[in-house]
Fold this protein.
Amino acid sequence: PAQQAAQQAAMAKAQAAMTSWRLSVPMSKFESFRAMYNDAGVSFYAVKITLAMYMPDAEYDYAFNLTKTLGSNILQMEMPQGAGSDELTDRIGQFASKHKIWVGYHAHTDASPTLWNTAMSQSPYNGINLDVGHYVAAGNHDVLQFIQENHARITTLHLKDRHYPNIDNASNEPFGQGDTPLVAILHLMRDKHYPFPGSIEFE
């Protein structure tokens, strides 16, 4: 118990220090950072920051202002799970609507066709960062249908090839050797002119 209490105190101290830094740093630093990459021909399509209920409103504003300053309109984070997760996505969605910045929630093998429904109902800016490999590894056989039905709320795709869970424990495979219909997904994106990017994720 004493060790656990010490760990919790250390975590709270680190969280407070991070909040303090975020609320003090000028956005000009990130403007310079963006310019350095833009001058090299690199742009930022998304920014990943994990938001939590303990954070003050000003830290939420920081996250969305940072995203805009870096030239992106997408903030990405893991889909909250467990008690209070709906309250959290509702709060995040309110700030996303305020700033008109998309939030793409990422899921691993907890992904299901209905996982994002509550978050999307809470805000028009709560969206889906869909990992098609994890979606297949979770046992879902409708990835093409899911993309078509939810394309307007998809912020980005993560592309990898994985098996269904009953084959080699849903293992990661080289492209073309798993069960993820990557060619069909890419053709769908091309033919339907979907604007979201697909990023290759190596595991």
About this structure: The chain has a mean pLDDT of 96. The radius of gyration is 19 Å. The longest strand covers residues 126-131. DSSP finds eight helices and eight strands in the chain.
